[in-house]
Amino acid sequence: MAFRLGSLRRKDPYWDFFLKTAPADLANSASEIVRRAPEGNVFPTRTELHTPEITSRHVKEMARYLGADLVGITRLDEDDAGHAFAIVCAVRADDDPREAAGIGGQVPVQNGLFVTFVLSAWIRELGYRASMTSLDGARLAVAAKLGAVDRRGQLVTAEYGTRIHVADVIRTDLPLTAA
């Protein structure tokens, strides 16, 4: 379940510090610890899957269960590793993480990392490759029909406007359909 800060926001003298002041040692932040965690192995026996359409629906349902507010799938130009699809997850962000470097401002980043880390691990358990990467998430979100990009290069969606954070993209060889 995603952590939300909306109920904590009030006229608190420490709020700006919590929201805007970056941790003294970024190497010890939850986001960096998850990013440095090893991906894990791909299960050697592939699971029998339904059609790519049904598998895509299951992936989206799993991502929403893990806390993603928006999920899209788009086809990639296959890379050297043979990843044919990108799964793009986005979470609601009360504050733009690019501007709010503090622990409070990084909550959407942590929520997005949780979703993509667990979702990619689940795909590897199915016997398919899945890697988190920081490709151009906003561009891929547009390709996955989640919204449009504004002049600043930020994703704008019908549901959340610019109050959205695109998590790291998952590249995978799981047979999916762009949806």
What's the overall average pLDDT, rounded? 87
Shape: globular
How many extended strands? 7
Domain tally: 1
Rg from Cα: 17 Å
Describe the sheet with the most strands. Answer: 5 strands, antiparallel
Helix-strand pattern: HHHEEHEHEEEE
Given as residue ranges, the uncertain stretches (5+ residues, pLDDT < 50) are: none
Distance between the termini: 24 Å
| Fraction of residues in H or I helices | 25-40%
Briefly note the structural class of the backbone: alpha+beta
Q: Mind explaining what this structure looks like?
A:
The model has no long low-confidence stretch (mean pLDDT 87). 35% of the residues are buried. Strands 1, 2, 3, 6 and 7 form a 5-stranded antiparallel beta sheet that branches. This protein has a two-stranded antiparallel ribbon with strand order 4-5. It has 179 residues and is of the alpha+beta class. It has one domain (26-36, 50-172). The longest helix has 19 residues, at 107-125. The two termini are 24 Å apart. It has helices at 15-20, 30-36, 52-66, 107-125, 137-143, and strands at 70-75, 85-92, 130-133, 148-149, 155-156, 164-166, 169-172. It has 5 helices and 7 strands. Helix 2 packs parallel to helix 4 (107-125) and helix 3 packs antiparallel against helix 4 (107-125).
Topology:
Blueprint: H1 15-20, H2 30-36, H3 52-66, E1 70-75, E2 85-92, H4 107-125, E3 130-133, H5 137-143, E4 148-149, E5 155-156, E6 164-166, E7 169-172
Antiparallel strand pairs: 1-2, 2-6, 2-7, 3-7, 4-5
Helix pairs in contact: 2-4, 3-4
